[in-house]
Write a structure and sequence with these properties.
Elements (H helix, E strand, L loop, with lengths): L1 H7 L20 E9 L2 E9 L6 E7 L9 H9 L3 E5 L13 H18 L5 E11 L1 H12 L5 E5 L4 H5 L4 H12 L13 H10 L10 H4 L4 E5 L5 H13 L5 E5 L10 H15 L5
Parallel strand pairs: 3-4, 3-5, 5-6, 6-7, 7-8
Antiparallel strand pairs: 1-2, 2-4
Helix pairs in contact: 2-10, 3-4, 6-7
Amino acid sequence: MAAAAEASMCAIPDALLRDPPPDPTAPAQSLAQAIPSGGVNLNAVLYTASGQGPHPTILLLHGLPGNEQNIDLAQSARRAGWNVLTLHYRGSWGSPGSFSFDHCLEDGAAALAWLRARASGPRIDRDRIAVVGHSMGGFVAAHLAAADPGLIGAGLLSGVALGPVFGAADKDRAVAVVDENVGTSEGLHILSGTSPGRLADEAGARSDQWRLETFAPALAGRPLLLVTSDDGFAPGSDALARAVARCGGGKLRQAHFPTDHSYSDHRIALQTEVLTWLHLCDPPAA
């Protein structure tokens, strides 16, 4: 994995170095969106790439609660010619409704349906959609891609196996781990309609199902990116990688960076890795 990370830094993608030529007839835009899911509208932003297209598109999913939004990644992917859709799940960051892990999975599926419905125009290619998620969003990305063979690839950035991590048999420990992420005891109010205890119970009830390696058979035939760091969550991605290998998957790319959960001092390296992988997901026409 270290070799892959080192190799990714040998050639910095052009999208990290310069802006593309502007297209006055179809300019790049950042458009606020309301995506219907579960009877409410999710707060979202669609970053459209410059040019008439149609363009490939990324659904970019944040984690629990999503302090790291990875907007720098959204911007560099757009410069590389990709549209990017970001969203806030129900009950997070001002989106109405109650937050739950199940709702995150439903909201991700609703966002994909919204993208495909919007693809009647020239800017979005409905047959070239990938999903990338950070932390808990990595689990959501794997879940969506496993259920949706039409997606061209899935990228997990420090993907978290929800069952083992947030649903540990030791309930007090599970609650503490959730609270470390959402900051309820510190007075933060990022999530609504839930609590660390409720989220731990939800993950605990699916502790055997909500493991990343369960998605291996469905993901093995498509491009899959697993990026890990020194945050303690790498075992879930490593288990998925081993399971994909057992399924004969030959489109797996892995990288590991010696940094924290937010890749705070490896942001350029992270973007380079993701942009390199996106090029493999959607190679230019011959």
